[in-house]
Amino acid sequence: MLLLRLNRPEARNALDGEMVAALEGYLEQAGTDPEVQGVILTGTGRAFCAGADLARFEAAEDPRRFRWESHRLSRMVQLLEEIEKPVVVAVNGLATGLGLALMLAADLRVASREARFAFREGRIGLLPSHGGIARLVRYVGLGRARDLLLGGEELDAEGARLVGLVTEVVEPESLLDAARARLERALLRAPLSYGLVKRLLSAVDGMDLGSGLLMEMLGQSSLVASEDHREGLAAFREGREPRFRGR
Questions:
Q1: Does residue 60 carry a pLDDT above 90?
Q2: What is the four-CA torsion angle of 150, 156, 157, 163, rounded to 10 degrees?
Q3: Contact between 106 and 127 (Cβ < 8 Å)
Q4: Which position among 22, 123, 137, 147 has the lowest Cβ density within 10 Å, counted as fewest Cβ atoms?
């Protein structure tokens, strides 16, 4: 397990250029390192992540450079979806802006009862980006997304659970234990199967039914010949836990 902590508590873990580069590097490593079975992402201090450093917006004189940096941030967030391993976000406090985008791109989201979720971009003349609108609509539906983004609403942890933003709400002292438990349950699945299901869940969202069925068939055809599939069948017949090797 790779535990990543956003560690800039004096700025409520707002991501500056150095943090973005570091997080991007760790996520790319997690995607290819066979020693990393899964990732937990959390924050240090009283916030999970208050978004991107505002200095980035204040220095946005060249639209081309701003678009390039925005593309990079979106790509970093998307890595959470593209890593074919379990990714759990443990929301320890305030999540807003880029922090919400990171959370929405994770597989599973566990929140402390002290967590808060704020949709504040309109107050500084901007809009949620890096998936902050597109993924939000996926999770909560268009009507609820309108309430949150156009109504200026903020949610506490239980409210976020009720609308589907987070998977589970726990006491602050149990947050990391709950995130690890979620990760361990995810790791009971065969790695190749988990990775393909994760990628297909993202891909089929915008597909018609026929295309989605085709993608499922192609994925299944690659798994049916895997060692993990044979091991899973053998373990089922023998009444034991499978020992998957990711091949």
A1: no
A2: -30
A3: no
A4: 123
Largest CA distance in the chain: 65
Cα(58)–Cα(123) distance, rounded to whole angstroms?
A: 15
Does the structure show a pLDDT above 80 at 239? yes
pLDDT at 68 over 90: no
Closest CA to 227 of 211, 244, 215: 244
* Cα–chain center distance at 99: 10
pTM above 0.85, yes or no: yes
Minimal CA–CA distance to 95: which of 123, 132, 70? 132
Of residues 224, 189, 196, the one with CA closest to residue 204: 196
Residue 206: Cβ within 10 Å count? 10
Average pLDDT value over all residues in the chain: 89
Q: Which residues are catalytic?
A: 121
* C-beta of residue 29 within 8 angstroms of C-beta of residue 17: no
The Cα–Cα gap between 160 and 166 comes to 6
Q: Name 15's Cβ contacts closer than 8 Å, sequence gap at least 6.
A: 6, 8, 23, 49, 51, 52, 53, 73, 98
Q: Which two tokens stand for residue 159?
A: 């409210």
Q: Which residues contact 168 (CB under 8 A, 6 or more apart)?
A: 109, 110, 111, 161, 178, 182
* Bridge partners of residue 116, in order along the sequence: 94, 156
Q: pLDDT (tens digit, 9 = 90+) per residue, 18-58?
A: 899 999 999 999 999 999 999 999 999 999 999 887 666 55
Tell me whether strands 168-170 and 116-118 are parallel, antiparallel or unpaired: unpaired
> Tell me, what's the pLDDT at 99?
93
